[in-house]
Write a structure and sequence with these properties.
The chain has no helices and 10 strands. The protein is mainly β. The protein has one domain.
Length: 104
């Protein structure tokens, strides 16, 4: 399971995303009606996420197609799945806050 990046809280309620080398690859901001809007490093919208009906979070691309979902892990953290339900990775709480992301 290799580390593929991390996310840290930004200003004004946003979240900054970084790759495994510490380079910023995008950011997420709270949506007007809940959820989060996701942007790449150039500020182009790449998708959005919002709470699922039975818990967890559903993820969509910028065209509104579902790309996957995330659910809380049994021992903490969050498990990530693709649109077919196959596990793709997990995120664990970072030591100094934020999240560390890992491949499956």
């Amino acid at each position: 399971m290799g580390k593929k990046g991390y996310s840290r809280p930004g200003f004004f309620g946003g979240i900054n995303h970084y790759d495994e080398n510490g380079h910023k690859v995008g950011h997420s901001t709270p949506g007007l009606f809940g959820g989060m809007n996701h942007y790449d490093e150039n500020g182009n919208k790449t998708g959005y996420s919002h709470s699922g009906f039975l818990g967890g979070t559903n993820h969509y691309d910028s065209d509104g197609h579902k790309t996957g979902h995330s659910t809380p892990g049994v021992f903490g953290g969050v498990n990530h799945y693709d649109e077919y339900g196959k596990k793709k990775g997990e995120s664990l709480n970072g030591f100094f806050g934020g999240w560390n992301h890992y491949d499956k």
